[in-house]
């Protein structure tokens, strides 16, 4: 397997801003660990406060259950599936929103 198949690079955008960041992950990483890694990296890269958490939302989900705003779409759900199993050959066209919210 070559390097490009071993890792996936995704773009992340903080909702309602122009701030973006690319992160690279091993393709055999579980969705659960993918979410955990983003939660660890995002606070520094997106200047989040310690009382804020994030939801990771796959882009392009227009006409979702919350309306027409893709940035309000349902968050990615933790799973034991790997990035390769979940996204397969689509990984090059996938990007994500980071939606922050205050912890209670």
Describe the structure.
- The protein is α+β, with helices and mostly antiparallel strands and 104 residues long.
- It has a single domain, classed as Roll (Ubiquitin-like (UB roll)), CATH 3.10.20.90.
- The chain contains 3 helices and 4 strands, in the order H-E-E-H-E-H-E.
- The chain has a 4-stranded mixed β-sheet with strand order 2-1-4-3.
- The longest helix is centred in the middle third of the chain and has 15 residues.
- The radius of gyration is 14 Å and the shape is globular.
- The model has no long low-confidence stretch (mean pLDDT 90).
Tell the overall outline: globular
User: Largest sheet, if any?
Assistant: 4 strands, mixed
State the helicity in percent bands.
10-25%
Count of individual beta strands: 4
Q: How many domains is the backbone divided into?
A: 1
CATH architecture: Roll
**CATH topology, what is it called?**
Ubiquitin-like (UB roll)
Report the total helices: 3
Low-pLDDT windows of residues: none
Proportion of β residues? 25-35%
Radius of gyration: 14 Å
- Any idea what the CATH superfamily is called? Phosphatidylinositol 3-kinase Catalytic Subunit, Chain A, domain 1
Average pLDDT score: 90
Structural class by SSE content: alpha+beta
**Biggest β-sheet: strands ordered side by side in the sheet:** 2-1-4-3
CATH class: Alpha Beta
